[in-house]
Input
Amino acid sequence: MSKKFDVCAIGNALVDYEIEVEDQFFKDNDVEKGLMTLVDEERQGVLLKEVAGKVKKRQGGGSAANTIFGLAEFGGKGFYTCKVADDEDGQLYVNDLSEAGIETNLDTENLFKGTTGKCLVMITPDAERTMNTYLGITSDFSKEQLDEQAIKDSNFLFMEGFLVSSPSGLEAMREAKRVAKENGVKVSLTFSDPSMVKYFNDQMKEIVGDGVDLLFCNIEEAELFAGVQGMDAAKSALEKVANEFVITKGKDGALVYDGSKYHEITPFPTDAVDATGAGDMFAGAYLYAINNGKTHAEAGRLASAASSKVVSKYGPRLNKDHLNEILSSL
Output
């Protein structure tokens, strides 16, 4: 009997403000390039004033959200659990989920008091993205927001690593994993960002715990998590904690481990303009494919094509034309 959802995801709900900047902007404003940095509301307000009039786009985002949007764009069935406030950004977020056909725990008539989280996605001419994030109300995301039935009704639970930075988020991850394992739902996890593995290594290892079914990471995150150097050492370490995993390698493609053998996924040539959401889209397309009868190698190919297409444009979303190009390229 098929489940209602391919994936039930939990993560931080953030409205992405996409902004083009030059490298000098980071020097002038003391921003560390290439990383996701958590900031308070006042600091983010200062940066927003500095980029006034330069915001290219505003849309619902967050690591796990981008993955579930990617899944939905390919036709997958997703549920997203998160927390937004009853403000303009919160209403925008709920509408984005609804328009994408993604079911959620949110109700526009019953949102929370506070401020919806925002992520300033600053994109430089080299296509690298730097994020400064004020979590807002999602910093209090907790197990109270979980929909146990949605988890039980899914083939996979998908959790974003960013949640380990908050005690209540970590508790929500623990509880979601418990519900999934007790009900035969596969547990998948993304490390999300090197900073999460570097600064919250103990918390990440606690969530990995006795293992996950499917892990997404890049090579830097894998090395930081395991305290090793090099691809071979990283592979050996991940085999001990994940039944299956994917190590993304940016412009060099990806490595997929299906539980018994490795598949080298070649990259698709692209002219990169914005790396925002590339790893998230890879996970979304991959989860769609393995939920719909594709082999691990086929899933990797689809995911590689999808992430290559995402970096060739601004923002983490694909439209129907992009999807048709991807499918025809395969």
